[in-house]
Specification:
With 204 residues, the chain is an alpha+beta fold. It is 16% helix and 50% strand. Strands 1-2-3-4-5-6-7-8-9-10 form a ten-stranded antiparallel barrel. It starts with a helix and ends in a 5-residue tail after the last strand.
């Protein structure tokens, strides 16, 4: 009986020691949050260079509808240049448009900004004649095609704006703008620009 009691006391002491050690030991720290995946980081970095192909000088030919969404089907022809400059290592760029024709001259500047959280671009345009920015359009590129959408007003009525960029080759690209007055059910094309590369880059 004495031997059995001593055995029980020994086992109890061992159990208490194990329990005490377990309570005294510091808790294992939770693993740190995993960093963003390499694929995600690569997609963000790649996206901010979507407009790199356009950096340089271009000859621009524009056909534009004289009075969009009015039933007027008179188209006007203009020619000139577009010069695109990189800003902040490609995270933004500036496009300077200068075209003219029998209907007059159009000078404007387009600011494109990359939004890393949304992984998309916003485009802001201002005519030098008015000196004010239009409402921005947003979107991005997929399989070489850029699509951008936004809301604006035309003669006081709300419209949707769609802007599409496609390049037949590295040196020839087409830009199309269309408006919709019925929330995207029908679109009317009002601007077609064809750019042909003159130079690959411009001085910053």
């Amino acid at each position: 009986m004495i031997a059995i009691s001593a055995l029980r006391i020994g086992l109890l002491a061992i159990g208490l020691a194990v329990l005490f050690d377990a309570q005294a030991a510091p808790a294992t720290p939770a693993p740190a949050p995993a960093p963003a995946s390499e694929a995600s980081a690569a997609a963000t970095a790649e996206g901010q260079h979507d407009f790199d192909w356009e950096i340089g000088a271009w000859k621009t030919r524009v056909t534009r509808l004289q009075s969009p969404l009015s039933g007027n089907e008179v188209w006007l022809e203009l020619e000139g240049t577009t010069v695109v400059r990189r800003v902040f290592d490609g995270r933004a760029n500036l496009a300077e448009l200068d075209i003219a024709g029998p209907s007059g001259r159009i000078q404007g500047i387009s600011l494109r900004l990359y939004e890393p959280q949304a992984r998309q671009w916003s485009i802001h345009y201002a005519s030098l004649r008015s000196g004010t920015l239009t409402a921005p359009i947003s979107g991005g590129f997929k399989n070489g095609r850029g699509e951008f959408f936004g809301r604006d007003t035309l003669d006081g009525r709300p419209i949707l704006v769609r802007f599409v960029i496609e390049c037949a080759t590295r040196d020839v690209c087409r830009f199309e703008q269309a408006f919709s007055a019925d929330d995207g059910k029908r679109w009317e094309l009002n601007w077609i620009a064809t750019d042909t590369r003159i130079a690959d880059s411009t001085s910053d």
